[in-house]
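Please, does this match?
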Amino acid sequence: MIIQKFIDYLKVEKGYSKHTLTAYASDLKSFKDFLLKQGDTSELHEVVYGQIRSWIVALMESGLENRSVNRKISSLKTFYNFLLKTGVLEKNPLDQHRSLKTPKKVLVPFSQKEMQHLSEIYGTEKSFENLRNELIMELLYTTGMRRSELIGLQLSDVNLESRQIKVLGKRNKERFIPLLDVTSIKIKEYLVFRKQLETIQTQLLLTDKGEPIYDSMVYKIVKQFMTLVSSKEKRSPHVLRHAFATHLLDEGSDLNTVKELLGHSSLASTQVYTHTSLERLKEVYKKAHPRNSHK
């Protein structure tokens, strides 16, 4: 099946994560289902731009945001580039397509005050579940790793002696992140309870039944904790990663260092996190400069 060959290519050649592979497969299936509902029996490699355009219109009429529509079309474009590369097609039907305009969204990270408050409300009861959940929060905030990277952490990735952790990022690229004292202590406390589980799993973070933690579980834990200290609309693992980067920049870290810690392949990706820091810089500047008449 042509879709499966494409997914296998992304997995083996590109090293995409399971989450990304699922998204690509879902987008392609959605488009194929649309064609069938329209009574169109065209195979995916036979379609022309007009058919794709009809799908775009249908997605927009269903209320899907432009940003989400663009993501689906991006999946389709990558698929057709794959068909070009393998000789199935001679031209990508999306070559002339222009992405839909989207409003510029600025993700507001958690403040340093909110993160400090979080550390003060951790439970005093030392149990497997409490320590695991607190460790999830600490690892996300003190290392800036992605949710998928957190889930994939192995016991062997943690080196408490040298106080660092190995993270397997996008396209199977490894990076090493230093561990703060507070995070090392959390890991040590958690490992005492983890050893009591009957499990053959090698992942660092497990459920109370000895199975690996999963996407929705991590999201739920983060949302529960951050709801206690923040009223921000977005309370997700990615916002913790955003807070990690922003707080480092606020405290004077250079962009290249933050880039390496985040596992970005280019500075362009890291510069997204500079917006909040610039806003803070403007605020400090206005308050401090003697020429400011509104002081």
Notes: Strands lie at 158-159, 164-168, 174-178. Residues 18-37 form the longest helix (20 residues). The first strand starts at residue 158 and ends at 159. The chain has a mean pLDDT of 88.
